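Work Package 3 (structural annotation) set out to generate three-dimensional models for the target panel prioritized at the project kickoff. During this period the team completed the workflow that converts sequence records into discrete structure tokens, so that structures can be stored uniformly alongside our sequence database. As a representative example, we reproduce one entry of 501 residues exactly as it appears in the project archive.
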Amino acid sequence: MEMPSRPEARADPNAGCMFPDRPTPSGGAVTRTLLATSLAASLATASLAAPLRAQPGFPPNDPLSWQTAGTAKVLCSALFVSGRALPEVRSHLAGYFLGPRLDSITNIEVDSTRKLVRLTVAGRVTREAKAYGDQGCVIHQPGKDSVHFTPMKVTSSLPPATTLDWPMGDRLPTTPPPPDVDTAKIRLATDAAFADTAALTAAFVVVHRGRILAERYGNGAHQDMQLESWSMGKSIVGTLIGRLIMDGALTLEQPAPVPEWQKRPDDPRAKIRVMDLLRMSSGLRFSRGSPEDLPGYHDHDLGYTGAIDAFQFALSRPLQFAPNSFGRYRNVDPLALGYIIQQVVRARGEEYLTYPQRALFDRIGIRRQVLETDPYGNFLLNGYDYGTARNWARIGLLYANDGVWMGTRLLPEGFVKFVSTPAPAWKVPQYGGMVWVNGDSAWNLPRSAFAFRGAGGQDVYVVPSHELVIVRMGHFPGAAAGFQAVRKAQALLMEAVPGKR
């Protein structure tokens, strides 16, 4: 079976995050980035001198097995969460974990009755993942055919979407758009998103002043398909933290309520604040392929693929940099935030696995959003999450409206401004608080725009100055072409819709 190779991806030199669609900084930004990398390397010299630590995956120290497990999970989710057809999934299979080794896949076994995928690579490594209802697909540890938690059914309290108007439902207005919208350019922007077939665009939705102006699907996707969203899920983590702050359960400024960090006053991690975690500036050591990292399989990916307790793995990491002194893109911070959400929710006597539906999704018209877990039932919202394009448009609309939904404030006043402001510890102004920002003008949008972004070209752009939300989703191998396509669409949309009155 012929598999597509992994698309070329550029590493953001400051963040350490592999984004195939992220332009490389130029000029002074490069100089600042190189200085930051040099500083990080010098600070980490003592740690690099230490022997390579054992990595606690299942099985331990077996990167090929972990990569195979992650790819089995991606396949399982595509088939049993998204409901995609196997021939299409095979042709567009994500190479996020296996990369060029996709060509080494020797067998894919699909058990539709059990909703299980068993994947073999190089004729010698076999791993499996199984669908567990509303928790989506979960990697099995070797030799086990179950998980270490009780799956929960997640139900919505909302009536059918067909019975309500957008955005609480799916009924769209039949009246023409406002006269100050250039509908011809809206159509051109939508065409641009799909013009390059190599982009593998799956969904494109444009919302202006709360109204859907454009919506199109392709490459096997449709309006109700739960599409892979990858790191856009980090923005769900941030939103849930915002909901808990709104409830008075947390504050941005408080030390992160992690007992392991707070029990000893001399533990330097005790100084990490909730806001530092949101800004990816905790300083916790977590490898991601940057020059200062330890060699070996990246911690960033081990949480996805190692079939470990990802929360405890993240919390156990030592400090590498002083909190709020160095920002870089690492899964350790959203995983730590996920633990905090879990503990706060359980301390209130609430069911953790159903909390996002009650606290957020039901409030904004989302009836189903699949949030996947590790084998211990911890949400892996650093990247294992599936939602429809309209779901993501709703979340973007919540942010475009400053955290207010249909007259009710769901996020604290000032929270959206906080997360959409460049984080001070980042040397290049690319990141805010669980969202990307346009401080380096990488997009054809105003500098005030910000975005939820995920690998493979999953993007929600929020443009407050134009009361605009743009959702673009696509299949992983098309990421590089997809980013260029969406940039063209962005330019046209800026001409098509007026700025805020």
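Residues 1-52 have pLDDT under 50 and may be disordered.
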